[in-house]
Design brief:
globular, 15 helices
Length: 494
């Protein structure tokens, strides 16, 4: 027994709690989460925490009680037949959807767009699904992979008529929305069983404003996943899975969901997702209209203050991507910095020093999202900060910095070896070589820049010179490399 006379020391201070309480509120955050201020909120976050043991109000995995009520509302609000809530974001939701495909057919073949998130690739590896990549059109000035065109999807189905699904990201990180209505019509007309699956992580808000691109459910996709925390008003980790029941087996979705979902979900996160959907359904057009107006103000003031910036919307307006893009997200701003000597990663770091956080930096790009919680001075403070950061860094004589080549250009539609097998053999016969020596060899590891979390080098595929050059440029400009060796001195190959 402890001596009662011994005085216990006070707990040490949590650095995480400290940052959340002290620092976050001082920043203009043009980044996720985008939280709706008007949503109904839990009054006592700690005092109301509860577990599945308190089952008097229903349970999440059984879709009963208050959870069934929330799911019915969300499905109706988003134009779906069925909806399920996730506390695993879109990453976990993608695993659930791909597990559903594996349960339906263990040898399922999936046509996957090259702009897919790493969670899609990792789920394909985990479940042993077969896959083929669709073409990966690329806009080098803005480091953006475009969605596949309807013709490219249809051509993929002609070559692989046995495909069980077509999966792509829309909107993309930069805000490109695919031509989903045309893709869905083409897929459903060409195949009696193929499903259109949309990773709509960035599109949970689209259904609620007429000037935004059509949502996946409205456009006829069979199933989609959304991150409610990104642009649909909820707290971090919240997400939704929506589907139409014509081609999707609801029992298999539910089985996959039960396999994956935690038995200890945060009901506070679920409450936030529910409240966010209800707020968007009631006030979304007004709230999103204000965000769209603020985005236009930001772009206008950036153009006036920094005429050397390139704007992604100008390329869209010129119709350069019309075959692939059906619309763009009007609450996103992507600018190119090729007329400046400062990289996007360097500019983002210096903006953070001025209490401005952006969503994503690239070698020569910056992407900002207009979140619901931005304060009234955010636009002017951000324009001033970026003007100060870029002052004195304009390239001489109107020159431009060279932009990295397309890192996906040389990737085949199919791997030399399935990524799952390549990963298994990595320890047995894999070996490390200098990065430049890896070109042409089969990769035994996955490498990406984060964000956006799209694998640039992938197990089982040959390493290309363009991919190596891009990763080096990203590393040297301050980007965050996700790899076994984050310095990129070595790469594991077979």
């Amino acid at each position: 027994m402890a001596d009662p006379a011994v005085k216990l020391a006070a707990p040490t201070s949590s650095p995480i709690v400290g940052v959340l309480n002290r620092d976050v509120g001082r920043y203009h955050r043009w980044s996720t989460p985008s939280i709706l201020p008007e949503q109904e909120r839990v009054e006592d976050f700690y005092g109301s925490d509860v577990s599945i043991s308190a089952g008097f109000f229903g349970t999440l995995v059984d879709h009963s009680g208050i959870f069934a009520e929330a799911e019915r509302f969300a499905a109706g609000a988003q134009g779906a037949d069925r909806t399920m809530f996730s506390v695993h974001g879109s990453s976990g939701s993608n695993w659930i959807v791909l597990r559903m495909l594996a349960l339906e057919r263990s040898d399922a073949l999936v046509l996957v767009a090259r702009n897919c998130h790493h969670s899609v690739i990792n789920a394909i590896k985990a479940f042993g699904l077969d896959f083929r990549f669709l073409p990966a059109p690329y806009e080098p000035r803005f480091e953006a992979v475009l969605p596949p065109s309807p013709d490219e999807v249809l051509d993929g189905l002609r070559r692989y008529p046995e495909a069980l699904a077509v999966l792509y990201t829309s909107p993309t990180y930069e805000g490109f929305a695919a031509r989903t209505r045309e893709i869905a019509r083409a897929v459903h007309g060409a195949s009696p069983q193929a499903m259109v699956i949309v990773d709509e992580a960035w599109g949970g808000h689209l259904h609620f404003h007429p000037d935004l691109p059509e949502s996946a459910m409205a456009a006829g996709a069979d199933i989609c996943v959304q991150s409610t925390h990104k642009l649909a008003g909820g707290l971090q980790q919240t997400g939704l899975i929506h589907w139409h029941t014509d081609r999707v087996d609801s029992e298999l979705v539910e089985e996959a969901y039960r396999e994956y979902v935690t038995t200890s979900p945060s009901y506070h996160l679920l409450a936030s997702a529910d409240a966010a959907v209800r707020t968007l359904a009631a006030l979304g057009e007004r709230a999103l209209g204000a965000a769209i107006a603020r985005t236009r103000e930001l772009k206008s003031k950036l153009r006036a203050a920094l005429p050397e910036l390139d704007f992604l919307e100008d390329a869209l307006a010129a119709g350069l991507y019309a075959g692939h893009v059906g619309g763009d997200d009007l609450v996103k701003t992507t600018v190119g910095l090729s007329r400046y000597t400062l990289t996007g990663h360097e500019a983002a770091a210096r903006l953070a020093e001025r209490h401005v956080v952006i969503e994503k930096a690239g070698v020569h790009t910056l992407t900002l999202i207009t979140t619901f919680q931005l304060g009234p001075s955010a636009v002017d403070d951000t324009v001033t900060a970026l003007r100060d950061v870029l002052a004195g860094h304009v390239c001489a004589d109107g020159r431009r910095q060279s932009v990295p080549a397309d890192p996906f250009a040389a990737i085949d539609d199919r791997p030399v070896m399935h990524p799952y097998a390549a990963r298994r053999y990595a320890k047995a016969i894999g070996h490390e070589v200098a990065l430049h020596e890896a070109v042409g060899k089969v990769a035994a590891e996955e490498v990406e820049v984060y964000p956006p979390g799209i694998p640039v080098i992938l197990e089982g595929f040959r390493v290309s010179r363009d991919a190596v050059d891009y990763l080096r440029a990203a590393r040297d400009s301050g980007g965050a490399i996700v790899a076994r060796d984050t310095t990129l001195r070595t790469l594991r190959v077979l």
